[in-house]
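Handout, section 3.2

Students often ask what a structure token actually looks like in practice. Rather than define it abstractly, here is a full record for non-specific serine/threonine protein kinase. The first block is the sequence as you would receive it.
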Amino acid sequence: MGCYCSKGLVTINNRAFYMQERIGEGGYAYIDLIEDKKSGKFFALKRITCHSKEDETEALKEAEYCRMFNHPNIIKVEEFTTVKKTQTTSVWIVFPFFKLGSLQDLIEKTAKNNSYIHEDRLLGIFKGICEGVKAMHEATPSPVTHRDIKPANVLLDENDTPVLMDFGSVGPARVEIKGSAEAQAMQDLAAAKCTMPWRAPELFHVESHCIIDDKVDIWSLGCTLYAMIYLEGPFDAVWQKGDSVQLAVLSRNVKFPEDQQSLYSAELLDLINALLVVNPAERPNINWVIQRVEDLCLNALAANRV
């Protein structure tokens, strides 16, 4: 159960929290900073407004998917409950609070300072993201995909450990599409749940008979790695100008600015090209990606020793 006990105080499953401040909102969700009354620890409370039973089921899936995992690179759920109102229902989910914010915050701060993320640090963060994705892709008994991997959905702790968040887009790792109706349904779902500049090509135009699998995350990992190097996503400029992101993605219209390339190894830049492949069948799986990143880490370590 969850309720407002008094001004500034809420209880969730018999735990009392002090409301602090609004730290985010979007769509039908609000995120507030809350403080545990007993321990004094801070948490993030996500409240999702649901206008139907279907909305409630979808909102609860986010908590249920998170609770599938006990992994250092995947967000944990502290508490979750539903709050019934006259016209609507709200799903409340309590997550750990990361005071340093997201990878997107780091990227924006780095760009503002006209700096860059050192390759050693970049590789460590990216490897952690990939480890979280691997846990999802190999979950038993039901592997899943995130479908909305982007810097804003990666939190960072004090040790630079990346933590995947926002599981509202998560779904089965393998979906067989049978017919135009199912294809349109998947396309509509992707449009609603998957951020356009980070969305895999196969989700823009879903074929009537195809398999949508975990390779969608590999594409998004490529976009994320690009953003860590160039401090903006590969399709951000297209999005900001109001041009067709779909056309840019399907034609793989990706530019590689030369000013940042000298700061990174050629092998790291090659990795982006290996991930941003339009045909999902030609993209590597997550184990290949992790192995490649580990090789790059070893190369960087050896270079630093010279």
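Discussion prompt for tutorial groups: The mean pLDDT is 93. How would you have guessed this from the sequence alone?
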